[in-house]
């Protein structure tokens, strides 16, 4: 029985990867957004390295957060439109397990590339080299939490007027703690505060908390939206 | 007379602030099928969605093998196959991939039905196995959705307008699929405004349970 | 439990709320008058802030109520979602704009208080910042509620977001406070006064209870109109309208 659930989760995960891969423009959109936003900042602030260095942790984190928010609209929307989601609700396995698999695949295609690309943008933003490791680490811990929490509003706004804007409105206040600790971790290791280990472990705690309740809450949300 | 496998008592559904139908009851035994009829806008789709557990009814209870479906949860959905207005087909995947996925995600071990190849053969889509589903015609997509029924092998079929976009020959061959399902002891609930020929199917007039009509 | 079921029928609650509202309103008025009198005349000026601190008697109760209203809203919404109680859905829905106005009042009075204190209307003070985030949570809840037509789906969907918000509020609150202490360790915050005198505490408590009764009054009034609107097709509402006209 448990083997069955894991097998089904694996199948959903691989299906998502395959579908997103064949529809690669959506995957790229979040990444390109991340790159463009971080490129706009030096143009607005000026090329002065010392000034950039001060705002770099915040800019990189806000850009990552907005890119993730932007990608949330693709999480369930197409499955909702073609009826696949309805079929997923008729699965013999717990819906929350299926949702978790979907979220995991979504993160692998949006959050993970974002974290891996961030060192390049960090150099662009004049972030000290010693802080780059923390930046990648904080994004690796933080972006899955963002996707997990964001799945709840994404599920709630299916088929609702103005769903896209509504997702941002619902999700951004919930993101504040992750933004605070994520940006703070990077700033700390860039030498502006305490050691970053404490912040990273808090981000890890948020991830654990989100893992425990977000799949459940978003599957409840899906049932409400498809009622 | 054996106990009904599927029993509905006192069901009421509401959309917005309008009661669609109230105090609806129906029973199905193994090998029985029901054709739910009524004009548009009466709530046939809502009824089917409530019957397969997708939407929560305001009142009433639905029992499967004597137990409430709300208590059974996944143990109930494991025995129902639903084909709704939407085909539930992922356009980016091929016809074969769509069915294989259904077999993996939607069937418990040891409950699989036909292989995807056999199922596609049965609905006449064998030649389309490797075509992306988005390139299929409306009728072909519908047949692919119905092929899922064969892959899943579940005892209760809930079909919402299954013959939409199908030609006469396909309607005949697919209604014979329902006939075979009944012969094997399966149950079926069908909503269709299209005429189809299926011996032994009972008619169910939804109008009887609707008090107010606009 | 039986009592809950008896009064959770919208019609019965409509009558009950109509009976309670005037009493709550009277209590609110008495508490506001005595609280404001004590706060504005009886309590002595603060040795540091002079008379400017007196806005606290409005600011602090509103800040408290903004949090309490959110908790109440989330609990009502959860009850409506889990047990399918329509009255709870209604109470949650009408609490949201009330809570949002408490939050907005707390923000406005906070920044008015900030002007003499910091010389500017807005400082990223921990309390103000977390009130701002709370306002966003309320706005999101109301926007979601407003964008779904079907009353039941709207109630259930917004219930989920309210519960998620409730889980998050303590985390948001503490992370904002932590963030604030990290960045402005030496600054003066609004409420961490070294000592609050009993002469200031008494009006503060009276005003807080007053705002609580104000909430209850508004809850009765607003839920009555919401019930009338939802039950507009029911016989008892029709009879009521006919008897009034």
Beta-strand segment tally of chain B: 9
Largest sheet of chain B: 5 strands, parallel
* Helical fraction of chain A: over 70%
What sequence of helices (H) and strands (E) makes up the elements of chain B? EEEHEEHHEHHHEHEE
Tell me about the largest β-sheet of chain A.
none
Shape of chain A: elongated
> Count of helical segments of chain B?
7
Would you list the SSEs of chain A in sequence order as H and E?
HHHHHHHHHH
Structural class of chain A, by secondary structure, is: mainly alpha
Features:
heterotrimer, A: about 230 residues, mainly alpha, about 0% strand, C: about 240 residues
Q: In terms of topology, how is this protein built?
A:
The complex is a heterotrimer of chains A (227), B (214) and C (245).
Chain A (H helix, E strand, L loop, with lengths): L1 H21 L1 H22 L3 H23 L1 H10 L1 H6 L5 H15 L1 H14 L7 H25 L6 H30 L4 H29 L2
Helix pairs in contact in A: 1-6, 2-3, 2-7, 3-7, 3-8, 3-9, 6-8, 6-10, 7-8, 8-9, 8-10, 9-10
Chain B lengths: L5 E10 L2 E11 L4 E5 L6 H8 L7 E6 L2 E2 H4 L1 H4 L2 E4 L11 H11 L10 H7 L15 H15 L3 E5 L7 H16 L3 E5 L10 E4 L9
Parallel strand pairs in B: 3-8, 3-9, 6-7, 7-8
Antiparallel strand pairs in B: 1-2, 1-4, 4-5
Chain C lengths: L1 H7 L1 H33 L13 H28 L2 H33 L7 H22 L3 H33 L14 H33 L4 H10 L1
Short synopsis of the structure:
The complex is a heterotrimer of chains A (227), B (214) and C (245). Chain B is of the alpha/beta class and 214 residues long. Chain B has seven helices and nine strands; from the N terminus they run βββαββααβαααβαββ.
How would you describe what is shown here?
- The complex is a heterotrimer of chains A (227), B (214) and C (245).
- Chain A is mainly alpha-helical.
- Chain A has one domain (2-225).
- Chain A has ten helices and no strands.
- Chain A has helices spanning 2-22, 24-45, 49-71, 73-82, 84-89, 95-109, 111-124, 132-156, 163-192, 197-225.
- The model of chain A has no long low-confidence stretch (mean pLDDT 90).
- By secondary structure, chain B is α/β, with parallel strands linked by helices.
- In chain B, 30% of the residues lie in helices and 24% in strands.
- Chain B has seven helices and nine strands; from the N terminus they run βββαββααβαααβαββ.
- Chain B has helices at residues 44-51, 69-72, 74-77, 95-105, 116-122, 138-152, 168-183, and strands spanning 6-15, 18-28, 33-37, 59-64, 67-68, 80-83, 156-160, 187-191, 202-205.
- In chain B, the strands form two sheets. In chain B, strands 6-7-8-3-9 form a five-stranded parallel beta sheet, with helices on both faces. Chain B has a four-stranded antiparallel beta sheet with strand order 2-1-4-5.
- In chain B, helix 4 (95-105) runs parallel beside helix 6 and helix 5 crosses helix 6.
- Chain B is globular and about 50 Å long.
- The model of chain B has no long low-confidence stretch (mean pLDDT 85).
- Chain C has 245 residues and is mainly α.
- Chain C has one domain.
- Chain C has eight helices and no strands.
- The radius of gyration of chain C is 20 Å and the shape is globular.
- The relative contact order of chain C is 0.17.
- At the A-B interface, helix 1, helix 4 and helix 5 of A face helix 3, strand 6 and helix 4 of B.
